[in-house]
Amino acid sequence: MTTPTTVEHLDVLIVGAGISGIGAAWYLQRDHPQRTFALLEARGATGGTWDLFRYPGVRSDSDLHTFGYEFAPWREPRSIAGADRILAYLRGTAAEHGIDRQVRFHSRVVTAAWSSEQARWTVEVEHPGTGERTTLTCGWLFCAGGYYRYDEGFTPHFEGRERFGGQLVHPQHWPEDLDTTGKRVVVIGSGATAVTLVPALAETAASVTMLQRTPSYVMPVPAEDKLANRLRRVLGEERAHPLIRRTNIAKGRLVWQFCQRHPERARKLIRWVNARQLPEGYPVDEHFNPPYGPWDQRLCAVPDGDLFRAIREGRAEVVTDRIDTFTETGVRLASGRELPADVVVTATGLNLQAFGGIALTVDGHPVHLADTVVYKGMMLSGVPNFAFAVGYTNSSWTLKIGLLCEHFTRLLAHLDAHGYASCRPEPADPEMPTRPFLDFAAGYVQRSVDQLPRQGDRMPWLTSMDYRADRTLLRADSVVDPELLFTRAGDAERAAA
Questions:
Q1: 323-326: strand order across its sheet
Q2: Which domains does the chain have, with CATH numbers?
Q3: d(CA 138, CA 120)
Q4: Cβ pair 308, 220 in contact under 8 A
Q5: 217-242, pLDDT tens digit by residue?
Q6: Is the pTM of this model over 0.90?
């Protein structure tokens, strides 16, 4: 006879041990210390994005006083910081609160099946490297892995790329042994990754060219927040932190609102700033004048204007053109010009993947994400006891994560107080008009928009990108809502009978 294997049960499974997962664990520990939980991390280290990306110069383009946690002050003098400092901050926070001890590495969630009868998820976990699979059950599944694939970046088809005799690299998979010193480098792209890479590579490369099909909005920002540093010296870290955070949130909100309400004035202002940073007579309108409005895509911030400085000093060049074909020695453009290159970096974006590609089922029925509608930016219609964390695209990601996690723990408290075992969102009007969940013009979003959930045309089905509105919705308002249906233990069995 064989003894049946006992399946471990946890109250909450958090998928991902990056900035969102660590934050979710902190709020869960604070508000529900009696609950059992674990963080499942597919990779072998905490930190998520900040451990994954290893390309030169990798940094945040949001200030760390708002990108960092509300409960853990950022103590560094530079508010726009590199990945190494961000990673140290995240891991230090996790260690300080014992969250690192709850992480299970090399654990990739493959499937999750909800049973209404048992009011729990059965989760199949694959362990990369060994190929072994194990099973866990949980009361709640919280996906904190962001929205892009960690195993591959996006590289479009380039004619003739197989002929290229140099090295072709995607920033998401930067080789540890790649040395670009004295080499000719072409960086394809114009987004945040490209404008980070170019000045970093220009420090030692023979030449660096940023090749873009379409310009992006680029703005210089101070790497150090002088006001924040002054407040920290006068008031101390703990007292200064909330004041700095509120100030920077307000500044970011004002900039975004100005760009949305007065796009032409914002465009002219950004162009004026760019022109002042560039050499006299530089073709600003060719290389730094996008065809779309400010903040239709994310605005690229460059600390202390390092990209512009590299251009002024002749260490970097921007070329706006289309690629005709790769050649043996570089890239030939539609204009006929050829850019010689030893290394070509394809900073061409991400591949989106909702919830880490987990195959969800509810009572045996597959969940098709494109058929679901997002509730309060954190749950899916028709899917019980499932929450996720996706932050802002127009300001610091973590600002929204904190609010979502607070709302999540309040929701758990409501279930406890009233004896509920589960809850699921359901639109009162099944014919409610919908649009894409991420209402954002970035190419990586548009490529995958039909594979993602939808948002509705009214609250609580709208995906808010407004911190002030979300503070009301997620922090102040009740978790009780007529379109959130609660179920007590045993209700499913009684209904079936």
A1: 323-326, 330-333, 338-340
A2: 8-150+351-496 (3.50.50.60), 155-348 (3.50.50.60)
A3: 6
A4: yes
A5: 999 999 999 999 999 999 999 999 99
A6: yes
